[in-house]
Amino acid sequence: MKEWMEYHLLIGIDHFYLYNNFSDDNYNEILLPYIEKGVVDLIDWPVQYGQLQAYKHCYETYKNDTEWIGYIDLDEFVCLKYEQNIKDWIKGYKKYPSVLINWKFFGTSGRLQHDPDRLVIEQYTASWSHLVNTGKSFINTAYRFEVFTCHTFYAETSLVGIKTKILPVNEFKRFFHYWIPRTPLHAESKIQINHYYTRSYQQHIYKNMLRGDACSAGSQQGRIAEGRFEAHETKNINKDYTIQRFLVFLKLRLEK
After folding, report:
1. Cis peptide, bond prior to residue 116, ω within 30 of zero
2. Domain ranges of the chain
3. What sign has the CA pseudo-torsion 242, 176, 149, 142?
4. Which residues have CB under 8 Å from 227's CB, separation 6+?
5. Contacts of 127 (CB under 8 A, 6+ apart)
6. pLDDT at 186 over 80
7. Residues paired with residue 193 on neighbouring β-strands, in sequence order
8. How many whole angstroms separate alpha carbon 167 and alpha carbon 175?
């Protein structure tokens, strides 16, 4: 958690709204200094499959405090390829209600157990060869949102008195509905979300087999389906070190 927060502070995130959904670790100890500095709002959320309700609560409660809200999990790191600050990247989307950043999946990198003395972004570099069509979204709070899903958000507007939805855009400012191929297909992506879906094999067992899904019972069944881990892990045929351009700066922050 500390690595995740310090990394995102490093690339320009200002504040975190963290929802505690049955945590059983020492999260209070880690978060207290950030809460005292006013960097974190911690919301207790003891709701089974409460992810979407938490998303809506965050928007309705804090939309007037910020221009953008990004909905990401602790195993997801926003990875800028060229910009050093996410504010410089996202300013190009100010006229759009929401933008989806595509996932890049990472696997175990052959680790049975996580090394607590090394960072996540340092240990796990084996990845899929391509971005996937899904990801996570940043929403522009100047717009009104009613429809929340785990990955995409649809803003509402009114045209001649008739309510209509505004579709989200992808990185290339192309509107899309549900999951369609990213376009243009051959353009270079300048941002991705590194999704450390498993980390070590031991963490995969805890997260997917024991801890459970935050969104729905159906999603949980998908997590534990036979062959799911094998299908994911054997697609990690590349090495992606992009995020490590921030590694030395992150280590310096963590040493303070």
Report:
1. no
2. 52-242
3. positive
4. none
5. 104, 105, 106, 107, 194, 236, 238, 239, 240
6. no
7. 78, 103
8. 6
